[in-house]
Design the sequence.
């Protein structure tokens, strides 16, 4: 894969063989968090197209995904992403189906149904560990707090354990 930074507000993902590379147009261009998000969206889109193509027995080795974005204000944020893909080996009669498939990317769905984002901070030299439960709730804990909670739960279980019959 090759991710090319086309501008400060657009990227291109090419399905080329080999390791993932990131290329800029110039040495002065930096890889921003916006490029990272757009790259994730492009990679997710490419992945679902590849999976569909494999089942449909269509060559997907020449797909190119372009993502561009624009900003909105109040608050300042990405206001829109535009995703386009070029697929030379795709039969014309399969184009509408491929467009529908591209919209099945999990990141695409995440942007349409945004998750809650929680920020937690600690001071000192203890990093935090993010945890998210199946019900969507989450918390941040330091490694010491996680270890302490685990050892407390194990000792409490050991003190009050009863033997369970096996089947």
Sequence:
């Amino acid at each position: 894969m090759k991710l090319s930074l086309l501008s400060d507000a657009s990227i291109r993902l090419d399905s080329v063989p080999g390791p993932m590379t990131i290329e800029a147009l110039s040495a002065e261009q930096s890889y921003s968090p916006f490029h990272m998000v757009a790259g994730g969206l492009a990679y997710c889109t490419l992945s679902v197209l590849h999976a569909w193509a494999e089942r449909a027995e269509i060559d997907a080795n020449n797909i190119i995904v372009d993502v561009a974005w624009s900003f909105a204000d109040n608050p300042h944020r990405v206001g829109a992403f535009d995703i386009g893909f070029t697929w030379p080996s795709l039969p014309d009669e399969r184009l509408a189906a491929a467009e529908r498939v591209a919209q099945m990317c999990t990141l695409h769905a995440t942007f349409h149904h945004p998750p809650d984002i929680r920020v937690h901070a600690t001071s000192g030299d203890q990093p935090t560990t993010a945890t998210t439960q199946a019900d969507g709730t989450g918390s941040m804990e330091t490694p010491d707090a996680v270890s302490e909670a685990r050892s407390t739960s194990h000792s409490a279980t050991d003190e009050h354990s009863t033997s369970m019959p096996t089947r």
Remarks:
- Residues 116-160 form one domain.
- The chain has four helices and seven strands.
- The radius of gyration is 23 Å.
- The helical segments are 33-56, 95-102, 106-112, 143-159.
